[in-house]
Amino acid sequence: MKGGLVFSDYISTVSPTYAHEIQSPYYGERLDGLLRERSGVLKGILNGIDKEIWNPETDPFIDTRYSLADFSGKERCKAALRNEFDLAQREDIAVAAIVSRLSEQKGLDLIEGVLHELLELPLQLIVVGQGEAHYHEMLTWAQWRFPGKVAVRFEHEEALAHRVYAGADIFLMPSRFEPCGLSQLISLRYGTIPLVRETGGLKDTVEPYNKYTDEGIGFSFANYNAHELLFTLERALGYFPERKLWSRMMRRAMEADFGWDLSAEQYLSLYGKMHSFSVETKPEHAPSAKPKAKAAPKKAKPKSAATSAKAYPKANAHKR
Known about the structure:
Blueprint lengths: L1 H6 L3 E3 L2 H6 L3 H4 L3 H6 L4 E3 L28 H12 L9 E6 L8 H6 L1 H4 L4 E6 L4 H13 L4 E4 L4 H10 L2 E4 L9 H7 L3 E5 L2 H6 L13 E3 L4 H14 L3 H13 L4 H21 L24 H7 L1 H7 L1
Parallel strand pairs: 1-2, 3-4, 3-6, 4-5, 6-7, 7-8
Helix pairs in contact: 5-9
């Protein structure tokens, strides 16, 4: 890998913030010095999602399809999701969801650190995924200890993931690090408000809500700290009862475009620069391999004019 980083014309990774982060010792895995040296050719290009697969307007897996023109179907998706997970139908509380690998990298240790306080908030928590045994045990206990507040499925099945994205109000993604992340992009597509930690692609894609300007499409916190997660979730839930405000945020989330079109254009631009760079910097007199010694030519027998014309038709045609 180091050789590739040294000799490549350009280096790309999957988000602008991650391209910056890997130039630091914490994220650089002992290659941060080299990446800082080559920062001029290091570029972060966001991943995208398939907008045909992840589309609430055409999704075959969800209870009721909905769109920007009419997203009332999302409420019916939430009701169906609650029924599927045996949760009470409560208009006054939000459904928060996690669809993830259950690991420390995904921020499950933060959830664990404030689990009791988190489950005292006005929400129902749905968790779908598989991962480390420790977090399986923690969530199994939480489901037993807080019936009606926590529902867990230790599996990853695509149709189920579609139903969760469509039915949840808030999507939790408090990752320790996240080069790009796709789950927050999918949640935005379905009008499910992401709550993320400001790292990697999460920072690049989730504009935090600003109550003074009424802008933003989610909520975020900077430090990898369980109580910052808890405070940010409390703040998000404080806005949830304001239905008009929340609907505007949902609309902005669904309008955000994180398909592959823009990313593909950026890659094509980068490849174009690489091609130009390769052509412009190619040596005028590139060293060639040492020619092999040729065998002494054999003495050819004289040929008739007819034979010569047959052997070299193009040359004779040119003369005509």
